[in-house]
Amino acid sequence: MGTARTALLLSLLFVFLPLSEISAEESEPPEISCTSNVVNAGQEIECSLDLSDMPGISSIRFDYVHEGSNSVSDSSVLALGYHHSCSILDNGTAICWGHDGYEQLGDGGDSDRHVRPSEPVSSSSDGSKYQSIFAKHHRTCALTYSSSLFCWGQNDWGESGDGTTNTYSSPTVPVALPSNRSVVTVGMGHHHTCALLDDGSLMCWGSDQDGKIGNGIEDTDAQYTPISIGIPDDRNAISVDAGHTNTCVLFDDGGIMCWGKDHVGQNGDAGSSSTTHSPGSNVALPEGRSAIDLSVGAYHSCAVLDNGEMYCWGRQNYGNMGTGKGNIASNNADFKIKIPVKVEIPLDKSVSFMGVGEYHGCAVMTDNSLWCWGLNDHGEIGLGNTSLKQIVVHAGSEGVTAPELFVPGDGVFVGTHV
Length: 418
Fold this sequence. Notes:
four-stranded antiparallel sheet, 28 strands, 418 residues, disordered N terminus
């Protein structure tokens, strides 16, 4: 594993001092002095920080940022499937809990469900610690510091990416990605998975029903090992996510491209609703606006724009787009949203980031408040009731200082790094 030069960002949390008593000068983070600015995986360094001029601080939040970057890397340290959850711990191990009917907990056990985190995910076969974890449906994938990606759990369509349909109960065989490449991020659909690599390329594997892998109409067979997907050479993909029947990619120019089945407008390109088997058309975002965040549900997607607004497209039902429309018949024109529509958020709010499940979604605003909408029959929205919400409502989490928001099929989790 090579070294990585990092800068350390500090965000000081003034939990004891009223905000009105802190001046702009006092809220500037102090200088930090470290023994080294080069950090190897698993290495510890010592840093000193003088807080004598800033009384009342109870804790410090920090993140590592790659040199030359202005934002924290989007490592996935928590992931939620349909009925299981997983997390990366601070010592580089991983742990999962919940349903284990497809061995998705990865502990090498006997398919027993765990009602609380108890058994860690087995060590990877390459002996390296875990840096990121991803989950969807009945399976899990984890990326190690040696740049190996392991997938386990349900594998009927080659979802494990190792050329087999073996059901692994632990990280056993790495996904067959190019040995000279490393994974940047992973997007998981119902029965397929895609990975963005460090050279900007996209590779996908698993079920290709409805063209969701994106390798063309000539080959719609399941792919048991990763294959290259032809995204435009002149665009740099920074995020990938997938639903039941399609795949979407967010580019650094703020554009989004989706492909696969489009029967309810889930590709968002105002097209004819016909299936597309490869990347081609862009999501029809508002003119002059760029997307900064993307999340894909079962048959709909949402994006945060550069002005803090949020737009969604695809199948609209149960209030899942926050437009004020609830239960909609399939023959109603509002059921299929082919062009992104604006989510109605409060006028004094701007969205920072969000996540969507099958029929609900949640967003963290720039003031760190949490707002949710959509189907709520299992209490997904966190209001203390099971009432469906057709508009965005406050979920009662003022002061959420969360860099990550995870929305599974029927729940929500806000993760903090404090």
